């Protein structure tokens, strides 16, 4: 017994192929994988609100029990104090994330307070982001 043939009209087949090609990010399985990264962005200023160029912003991660995993991303602030750090997830627990800024060398400022943050590394179809503005303390 012969298998029945399924006939798809050409305009519909073309639209289906185009839709799959546009939405596919993983050519092997044809699915959209979850993002393994996130973005941390914001500004670094001093106590008076002035931007601090070249301040180093670091994000660190760890488990909920306080076990420190290490740096998950960093960036240096530009002349306007703006930064944008791409965060990468470690293989392991990342329930606790925090960010802080370190002053540029030779500066009379001290590091910022540590700020706890939350991002979703498994956000489907999008990269999660969070804005954190950091203030360097006076020495």
Strand content: 35-45%
Gyration radius over CA: 23 Å
Contiguous runs where pLDDT drops below 50 for at least 5 residues = 22-34
Helix content: 10-25%
Structural category is mainly beta
- Helical stretch count? 1
Query: Roughly how many Å apart are the termini?
Result: 86 Å
What would the average pLDDT be, to the nearest integer?
80
How many individual β-strands?
Answer: 9
From the spread of the alpha carbons, the general shape counts as elongated
Major sheet details: 5 strands, mixed
The secondary-structure element order is HEEEEEEEEE
Key traits:
mainly beta; 5-stranded mixed beta sheet; 4-stranded antiparallel beta sheet; 1 helix; 10% helix; 39% strand
Question: If you had to describe this structure to a student in words, what would you say it looks like?
Answer:
The protein has about 140 residues and is mainly beta. It is built from one helix and nine strands. It starts with 9 loop residues before the first helix and ends with a strand.
Topology, element by element:
Elements (H helix, E strand, L loop, with lengths): L9 H14 L13 E9 L10 E7 L5 E9 L5 E7 L7 E7 L6 E4 L2 E3 L11 E3 L2 E5 L1
Would you kindly provide a brief summary of this structure?
The chain has 139 residues and is mostly beta strands. Helices cover 10% and strands 39% of the residues.
């Amino acid at each position: 017994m012969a298998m029945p043939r399924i006939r798809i009209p050409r305009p519909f087949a073309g639209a289906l192929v185009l839709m799959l090609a546009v939405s596919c990010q993983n050519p092997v399985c044809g699915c959209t994988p979850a993002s393994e990264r996130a973005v941390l962005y914001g500004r670094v200023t001093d106590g008076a609100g002035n931007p601090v160029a070249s301040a180093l912003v670091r994000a660190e991660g760890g488990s909920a029990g306080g076990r420190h995993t290490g740096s998950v991303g960093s960036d240096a602030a530009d002349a306007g104090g703006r930064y944008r750090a791409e965060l990468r997830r470690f293989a392991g627990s990342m329930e606790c994330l925090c960010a802080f800024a370190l002053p540029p060398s030779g500066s009379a400022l001290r590091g910022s307070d540590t700020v706890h943050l939350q991002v979703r590394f498994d956000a489907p179809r999008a990269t999660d982001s969070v804005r954190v503005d950091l203030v360097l303390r006076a020495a």
